[in-house]
Design a protein that fits this description.
The chain has a domain of 201 residues: MetI-like (MetI-like fold, Orthogonal Bundle), CATH 1.10.3720.10. Helix content is 75%, strand content 0%. The protein has 14 helices and no strands. The relative contact order is 0.14.
């Protein structure tokens, strides 16, 4: 297993290097001037020249890339041209909200999606199967921002059951050592703060998790239906094995490989695609920070965010590969 993991880690290196080159060149070929965007109405020629010199924008692109790569290897993602703060520091402050929202959405998608897909795949053509297929199509077709607005209108404004925005009520006294609000409440034993953070997660997590839920349901259903037709499943049933044993050992375990792949891919997509949901619910994650950075041509932040997401995506794929080896030992030799 160790050799398997090392091999997968080695494959990540050229991917990240290639992405950094493409990203670096592409961003600098975009129209617009980061110095002008940062200075605004104060953008005189001398001020622009000074900003370009400070941030190295006046150097050749190749030289800028090597300087940037050297900083990355030392853990320096650069400083924001908008507020002057280190990019990594801003990520550490903002990203926990996005991670917390992503995990909540993923929990909803997996906890509901796998059992529903399994039940539908076991009884293709039944009423539950038809219901699940219809619901999954509706979930995929509904835009995230529209569902977010609808959930906010019904459950927050009309019924007043759940909070409308932000990560936590401003009136709640809470300590945030990690910026993971739910975890912070548990660590500091501020149970009311943790519960309030959970309530603020419900609506955005449901909105963000709807599309992954629909996809996981459909993949699980198709995978279970395919495994149901295999000879070893029919043999196990004909031998009179207990249904629970057949479901767990012969059907679910063999149907999990494509489901695990889907869950891994959706995790990366959720981390990178929570911007709309965070905007609707005014959720304090990386979305709002990234939006301002893109609109103001903040190169270091945009580069750092995309590379950071790529690194997380690669680590998620590594975890998926490792889980393959745990589910099916034959994969370890490939």
């Amino acid at each position: 297993m160790l050799r398997f993991i090392v091999r997968r880690l080695a494959l990540m290196v050229p991917v990240l290097v290639g992405l950094s080159i493409l990203l670096f060149v592409w961003i600098r070929k975009l129209p617009g001037d980061p110095a002008r965007a940062m200075l605004g109405e104060r953008a005189t020629d001398s001020a622009i020249a000074q900003i370009n010199q400070v941030y190295g924008f006046d150097k050749p692109v190749l030289q800028q890339y090597f300087i940037y790569t050297g900083r990355l290897l030392s853990g320096d993602f650069g400083d924001s041209t908008r507020d002057g703060r280190p990019v990594l520091e801003s990520f550490i402050e903002q990203f926990p909200g996005t991670i917390e929202l992503t995990l909540a959405a993923l929990i909803i998608a997996v906890v509901l999606g796998v059992p529903l897909g399994f039940a539908a795949g076991r009884r293709i053509g039944g009423w539950l199967d038809n219901f699940v297929v219809t619901g999954s199509l509706l979930g995929v077709a509904t835009p995230v921002f529209f569902l977010a607005i609808l959930l906010k209108l019904v459950f927050a404004d009309w019924l007043d059951w759940l909070p409308t925005s932000r990560r936590q009520d401003a009136r709640v006294e809470a300590t945030h050592p990690t910026n993971f609000y739910v975890l912070d409440g548990l660590l500091t034993r501020e149970w009311d703060a943790s519960w309030d953070a959970i309530l603020h997660l419900v609506l955005p997590a449901v909105a963000l998790g709807t599309i992954p839920l629909a996809i996981i349901v459909r993949i699980t259903r198709a995978s279970v239906a395919e495994v149901m037709g295999e000879d070893y499943v029919r043999t196990a049933i004909s031998k009179g094995l207990a249904p629970k044993l057949v479901n767990r050992r012969h059907i679910l375990r063999n149907a999990l490989l494509p489901v695990v792949t889907t869950i891994g891919l959706q995790t990366g997509l959720l981390l990178s695609g929570a911007v709309l949901t965070e905007s609707v619910f005014e959720f304090q994650g990386i979305g709002g920070y990234l939006f301002l950075s893109i609109s103001q041509r903040d190169y270091p932040v945009v580069q750092g965010y995309i590379l950071f997401i790529a690194l997380i995506y690669s680590m998620v794929n590594l975890a998926v590969d490792v889980s393959y080896g745990l589910i099916d030992p034959r994969v370890r030799v490939s």
